[in-house]
Design a protein that fits this description.
- The strands form two sheets. The protein has a three-stranded parallel beta sheet.
- It starts with about 55 loop residues before the first helix and ends in a 15-residue tail after the last strand.
- The protein is built from four helices and six strands.
- The chain has a domain of about 70 residues: Ribosomal Protein L15, Chain: K, domain 2, CATH 3.100.10.
- The chain is about 15% helix and about 10% strand.
- The longest helix has 9 residues.
- The chain is of the alpha/beta class.
Length: about 160
């Protein structure tokens, strides 16, 4: 076998259709783009959600009822399990202690303690909320629970149609 004997596999190469080269090419006049209109013009037709100039559904969804609902009054907590807090060397755990230990970035979000894990020694924990199981386990180990008041969160005025 020599270099001049090499040929591509049958059907792997084919001549591309020459568009816009007259009626004899098989793609004459409109070059396969149809009878005018937006899709016949040069340039991009639009993005995936484009609906011909009508406001697309993806832009309207935030204003539709029941779709994309966001509860403005929901309070988002920073959550800790008592099993993780019981491993700490501190006897008293407060939001400030968690901030100094860099377990919390800032004190904007309130702190909630959940009951996953075990407590073997008495710990004094101060937080905004406690789950029932967490409260029970801490008090059973001889610790105390101090619940801070509900956080006051300022909200921006409502925007949108509904």
């Amino acid at each position: 076998m020599k270099l001049h004997d090499l040929k591509p596999a049958e059907g792997s190469n084919y001549k591309s259709k020459r568009i816009g080269r007259g009626h004899g090419s098989g793609k004459g006049k409109t070059s396969g783009r149809g009878m005018g209109g937006q899709k016949q013009r040069e340039g991009r037709v639009g993005h995936r959600a484009f609906e011909g100039g009508q406001n697309e559904i993806t832009r309207g969804l935030p204003f539709k009822r029941g779709v994309g609902f966001h509860n403005r009054y929901r309070i988002e907590y920073t959550v800790f399990n008592i099993g993780d807090l019981a491993e700490a060397t501190h006897d008293e755990i407060t939001p400030d202690v968690l901030l100094q230990a860099r377990l919390v970035k800032n004190l904007k979000k309130p702190i909630k303690i959940l009951g996953d894990g075990e407590v073997t020694r008495p710990i004094r924990i101060t937080a905004h909320r406690f789950s029932a199981s967490a409260r029970q386990k801490i008090e059973a180990a001889g610790g105390t629970v101090t619940e801070l008041g509900a956080p006051v969160i300022k909200r921006l005025p409502r925007r949108g149609r509904f």
